Amino acid sequence: MPKISRRGQNIFSSPIRKFLPLVLEAEKRGIKVFKINVGDPDIAPPASFFPAIRSYQKKILPYAPSPGIKEHTAAWVKYYRGFGLKLKPADIIPTMGGAEAILLAITAVADPGDEFLIFEPFYASYKGFATMSGVKLTPVTLKVENNFALPPIKEIKSKINRRTRGIIIINPNNPTGMLWAKKDLAVLVKIAREHNIFIISDETYREIIFQGKPVSILQLPRAKDCAIVVDSASKRFSCPGARIGCVASYNKEAMRSILKFAMTRLSVPTLEQIGLVPALSNAGPYTKKIAAEYKKRRDVVLNALKKMPGVVCREPQGAFYIIAKLPVKNAEDFVKFMLTGFNYNKNTVMVTPAEDFYITKGLGRDEVRIAFVLNIKELKEAMEILAKGLAAYHRKSDSYKF
Amino acid sequence: MPKISRRGQNIFSSPIRKFLPLVLEAEKRGIKVFKINVGDPDIAPPASFFPAIRSYQKKILPYAPSPGIKEHTAAWVKYYRGFGLKLKPADIIPTMGGAEAILLAITAVADPGDEFLIFEPFYASYKGFATMSGVKLTPVTLKVENNFALPPIKEIKSKINRRTRGIIIINPNNPTGMLWAKKDLAVLVKIAREHNIFIISDETYREIIFQGKPVSILQLPRAKDCAIVVDSASKRFSCPGARIGCVASYNKEAMRSILKFAMTRLSVPTLEQIGLVPALSNAGPYTKKIAAEYKKRRDVVLNALKKMPGVVCREPQGAFYIIAKLPVKNAEDFVKFMLTGFNYNKNTVMVTPAEDFYITKGLGRDEVRIAFVLNIKELKEAMEILAKGLAAYHRKSDSYKF
User: Fold this and answer.
1) What is the pLDDT of residue B15?
2) Are A399 and A156 a contacting pair, CB within 8 Å?
3) Which of B131, B265, B276 to mutate to test the interface with A (most CBs of A within 10 A)?
4) Cβ within 8 Å, pair A14-B268
5) Which positions fall inside the Aminotransferase class I/classII large domain (chains A, B) (predicted)?
6) Quick check: B40 and A17 CB within 8 A?
7) Cβ neighbours of residue B315 under 8 Å, at least 6 residues apart?
């Protein structure tokens, strides 16, 4: 039997999805599992979305143009104008969700063997995209105890070598909920320019912030040449099943190359491009509403975590996640316990062990990520159950093994 | 300004899409351009498709599971049973069109620097996927004069080296319309087994055939371990804008790896997965109807080409393309002439120069691909205009340059 590739063997398993079998088993036993592990919003997309899709009246469903359906790309242009960005249609290419945007941006600027700096903890799928495209991720560690602050410039620069092609940032951050301040962005842009490398800025959660105004790295004039934004409609319009994102950059060479990659795979789904035109054209009212909702949820989770003995966390400023350091040796073991050895009135909670959000071995082993993807009432219940689970886990021997 | 990657620079431009500006200019001058260049069907998808999408009643649009929505993957299982294949749901992973299926299959079995044998001429996007994934395509040349027949086994084997990870076939073939006979497939499987490499079989056009029964390489028992089918709903259900395809293989190791890649990009569009359930569950009536339609169109094109002096072509057995060798030195120059220097009663025709369907330098320079994507009436008109254009081109000096 022929062997698969090394990258096929090494591709990591999503930490978010690998506990699914235990969830299903728990549910079979009649346990209700509050799932605050996946970033899968429970909120309906903008009211315009489904009607816009239903408005499609053509009898045939041809390929969309590779640079996007004209009205759709124009709607992204309009959307970005809301942040003072003067992107032209040619500076934007719709993608199959933020996921493809990331893969195309990486592929356009890096060859197999090249490297990117990335701040850990980070959205774990980046590991998969790196494996697929043959590039290496070099971690720069941020610490919850240190408020996930930018480390000294010297430390960042020391990780750059001749194979480094860019710095990847996620802003607002998944999984920490951290926002990069404009001055932090300016520091990173300065480093990128000095080393003649790119910044790939993942701004999927741009408007889901709990203070200040939404920010894009493209607002920094000095980022014009070096920044590539990877974006997604999934979270800000609560439509992850639509699989629509985009790449946006003023760097014409990068965009030309990304367009050629996009032509190779032909097009992005037609109906969802149409469905998102009204939402993109008038994003503010909807995104403000959901940001307010996520802020309330953030408060519920934060307040509950603060009351749990031994838990360390910081206040997320955006996105809908929080990293919590738990008073356990091994968060993965705790998560397994919650799914297999615990229930409270037939209820339990699924959170994501954070170890896989790191590259550096050993980091994040006692941390979990919580996603605010339930309504306030359920989230309160889930946090109570989590507290009870943590207490029960402590009553057991630390050596509890699944 | 930072430089993009070598692969970003080297990624080839789709031959199908690069003449688009000339088409637009011709249309501005009031010329009607009959487009028989792109494989974009003018036929409506199965009657069940749009109603199935409109039947979606949930208020939210979450990620679909990475292995596909249960009903959707089950519909693919049912679909393949129609060919006697006993694939289980775990042997099938829905993808974003055939395009992503190809990329995932290549990535799962080959590392950067590895090689695939591919029969030229072939669907040019494979070049893009190879560049993206860092693999090399080694051409085995098929010739129109030779009826695109399989070359001697020795010739094929001589191209296999220690970096070769597989053989790519497209069956029925785009752009030749050729079918691989079962005995040809058996030969290729034998070679793959002897060298312990994979066969990636692109069966996008499986049912669009003009003789015999639809075939999958998975019907060959000895292909069980080494064959990976990349498939697409786009052509057989006339819905390229839906972006739904799949990877199917009995090789569990390959499928495990492809699932992990699929998890990285989370999911395939929810609505289109639902839209295709009825079509996949009862494919026969629709695919038989469109195969009959494409056969009629094939006859129109073939008969017209046969009457054109100096044109060499063969009878396509499937798909909806034909490669025609024209009595010109440079088909690209001829295509430019048709768009810029010719019209017949304000009409002209756009075909695809075939050179980019080859890797070997110089091949295909006098060939074009014609796609049967117009109705009979329009196709007849288009072929008349093509004949007139060819005659006009000959009246001009051979040295006509754009």
Assistant:
1) 61
2) no
3) B265
4) no
5) 33-385
6) no
7) B177, B298, B302
pLDDT of residue A284: 97
Separation of alpha carbons B284 and B279, rounded Å: 9
Residue pair A180/A210 in contact (Cβ under 8 Å)? The answer is no
Q: Any idea what the Cα angle at residue A92 is, between residues A88 and A96, rounded to 5°?
A: 160
Torsion of CA A100, A102, A108, A112, to 10 degrees: -100
Tokens of B54: 């409109």
Q: Which of B18, B66, B243 is most worth mutating to test chain A (most A CB atoms within 10 A of its CB)?
A: B243
3.40.640.10, 3.40.50.1820, 3.40.190.10, 3.40.50.300: CATH of B57-281:
3.40.640.10
Closest residue in chain A to residue B110, using alpha carbons only: A5
Residues of B in contact with A70 (CB under 8 A): none
* Residue for token pair 């699944």: A402
CA-closest candidate to residue B235, choices B286, B199, B277, B282: B286
Residues A228 and A248: their CA atoms lie apart, in Å, by 6
Of the candidates A14, A134, A261, which has its C-beta nearest B11's C-beta?
Answer: A261
Residue of B nearest to A252 (CA): B4
| B60–A264 C-beta distance less than 8 A | no
With contacts defined as CB-CB under 8 Å, which chain B residues touch A226? Answer: 1-2
Are A1 and B242 a contacting pair at CB < 8 A? Answer: no
User: Minimal Cα–Cα distance from A152 to chain B, Å?
Assistant: 23
Contact (Cβ atoms closer than 8 angstroms) between residue B315 and residue B236: no
Chain A residues with CB inside 8 Å of B113's CB? 112
Interface touch B225/A133, C-beta < 8 Å: no
Asked if A97's CB is within 8 angstroms of B66's CB, the reply is: no
Token representation of residue A135: 């590039």
Q: What architecture (CATH level 2) is domain A63-282?
A: 3-Layer(aba) Sandwich (3.40)
Q: How many helices (H) and strands (E) does chain A have?
A: 14, 13
The answer to whether the Cβ–Cβ distance between A240 and B49 falls below 8 Å is no
Q: Phi/psi at A228 (nearest 5 deg)?
A: -125, 120
Across the interface, do B241 and A271 touch by the CB < 8 Å criterion?
yes
Please report, for residues A41, A238, A239, A278, the alpha-carbon distance to residue A45 in angstroms, rounded to integers and kept in the order given.
9, 5, 6, 11
How big, in percent rounded to 5, are the helix, strand and coil portions of chain B?
40, 15, 40
Going from the C-alpha of B100 to that of each of A122, A399, B72, B77, the distances in angstroms are 25, 44, 17, 19
> What's the gap between Cα A270 and its chain centre?
24
Residue type, A368: V
Q: What confidence category does residue A400 fall into, taking pLDDT thresholds of 50, 70 and 90?
A: very low
Distance between CA atoms of B171 and B64, rounded to whole angstroms? 30
**Tokens 């009826």 belong to residue:** B147
Is the model's pLDDT at B17 over the cut of 70?
no
Residue of B192, B241, B269 lying closest to A243 (CB–CB) = B269
Question: Alpha helix (H) ranges present in B159-246?
Answer: 182-195
Q: Domain B6-44+285-395 adopts which CATH fold? A: Aspartate Aminotransferase, domain 1 (3.90.1150)
pLDDT band at A18 (very low <50, low <70, confident <90, very high): confident
ipTM: 0.95
The Cα–Cα gap between B324 and B298 comes to: 13
Instruction: Give residue-wise pLDDT tens across range A78-126.
Output: 999 999 999 999 999 999 999 999 999 999 999 999 999 999 999 999 9
